[in-house]
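Tutorial sheet, problem 5. The two components below are modelled jointly, 718 residues in total.
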Amino acid sequence: MTDFPLAPGSTIGVLGGGQLGRMLIEAASRLGFDVAVLEREADSPAGRVAAKLIVGAYDDEAALAELAAATGVVTYEFENVPAASVAWLAARGVEVAPGPKALAVAQDRFEEKTFLNAHGAPTVAFAPASTAEEAAQAVAAIGVPALMKTRREGYDGKGQRWVEHLADAAAAFAALGGVPVIVEAACDFVRELSVIAARGRDGETAVYPLAENHHEGGILRRSIAPARADQALSEQAERIAARVLGGLDYVGVIGIELFELADGRLLVNEFAPRVHNSGHWTQDGCEVDQFEQHIRAVAGWPLGPTQAIAQVEMLNLLGDEVDAWPRFAAEPETRIHLYGKRDAKPGRKMGHVNRVKPL
Amino acid sequence: MTDFPLAPGSTIGVLGGGQLGRMLIEAASRLGFDVAVLEREADSPAGRVAAKLIVGAYDDEAALAELAAATGVVTYEFENVPAASVAWLAARGVEVAPGPKALAVAQDRFEEKTFLNAHGAPTVAFAPASTAEEAAQAVAAIGVPALMKTRREGYDGKGQRWVEHLADAAAAFAALGGVPVIVEAACDFVRELSVIAARGRDGETAVYPLAENHHEGGILRRSIAPARADQALSEQAERIAARVLGGLDYVGVIGIELFELADGRLLVNEFAPRVHNSGHWTQDGCEVDQFEQHIRAVAGWPLGPTQAIAQVEMLNLLGDEVDAWPRFAAEPETRIHLYGKRDAKPGRKMGHVNRVKPL
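Model answer (structure tokens):
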């Protein structure tokens, strides 16, 4: 078994070699930890700063065995980690955080919304469907327009379709691949917000101020944080975060996406059991950012402070937008975070900037 | 030849694998750079976060060739880089920053003080000596007590002796190994200060606020920054920094140690052609810290802002003091920076903490 709090000099395992892994390593390095990354690609943003890189599939037992030999604590930077891999590691005494419950709930949109409602975190109305007939029934029950999403996989707006007419339900179901789906009611929100929160191994929680998020084509473009919010709104978000974290017996940082309704109520859209793009503002807006907070939680350290020390506008740099780095570098108020990705495909997250001003 | 500004995704070379290298890599990673480290030890703080680790001596041509193949820009984290290695790299089109002049001057305490005085940066009185007779003459000229130091090598109080009586000069010279020395007048300072400054490839300079430093046994224990300083004192420091940076045609971050006299004048004690322990406060006290600033300068990027956004007390953690990490981790105002060193030998710099409060 692993002893907590984990001492500096220990190795922490990370499944996934993307930018979230890279920024977790930057934070882990500051705290004196080494990081072992398991990643499919031989060249990756996180792999290039990892103390140890294991190249393999996330369900490759030889790769997992190598990871288990290197470390007693593993976390991940994406939610589609195979449950069997987590079970395999756990059976060998490796602590995986966030734990299997958080992963299982987060990997299935129907389980996720069912869990949220059961724990007093409201969502839009929803219904599951596994056949074309059930899909039509679900759309009829929810009403149009409705959003049909695959229960599993899908991110950044992928794996979902709007259904404008009941008659289109079966076609949408087929277009999504005929896999199990969830049908969600449309949400007439006034703003998209998110709350980044953390829970330690001792159950301590810490919640960052709300971020206001702007998406384009399903991809986050811009976050403003701390978001303009009265005390009632902030308290709602904190209550939701506490219920979700407690209900999942969570360890680590979570990103919870919210809809703000005209009447001031918050609904939960979804959560990600990991550090979250809408929390990147904390790198330059808080003393302890979401990456260090996640490492602290996973390592069994006390959580750090979460209050904002600056007002931040976070802009994602997608595709060749990253080519504007010389302009950003010349702006005194702009902090630059680039991921070292080799290929600036359209829409690909290549980096972000935090434009900082005093609170 | 290397094109500047250096584009993200490029590799920067670092000679030396210690904590300064590690923190340079943390900053370089944020900006999307990869780092190749050349270091004697197979296991080192910086080696464990480097994209590429080359194990070899700093004057090993095969190792230098491997470094030159990986990158067109090389910097270093310690001042005793062999001049021949820098020349070897430069002859192969590799830009080494800070350049050979800064290194040559910084490596010889007599050259350093001569340079400083020639550029209007005042120092204590000093005289060189290469024999026991010259050492006695130098002490006679400077007066006692005098500080005798080897001209080359030596750090953290090593390689130096106080001479209290003229009759002890020859013995001190012998005790220092009979190598060329410099004899310096004692300085009756009221405070030890330092200024961290940077110069870009285009000659742009940026100066951080002064830090007040407290040493024990020749080793930095504690810095307080921004130091209490009136405008005249800050302007003196900025003037000194500008003269030193300009005189050396410098590229990168420099750490300049200063003595404050009772009459308010500043004398230069010495400078280090690299990021500096007394600049660690910038990690949590400034938007762009000395490590990112150095990477920006070396990469030919514009320099970042240097004003303080918080008041910081930096404490070095020496030897087993690092074992107190659980206490520091529980302090909300304390930011932790640990180096991942395996062996907490007495006096060894294992990490530091920045205790932060609002300005």
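Marking note: The CA atoms of residues 296 and 303 of chain A lie 6 Å apart. Full credit if you identified this.
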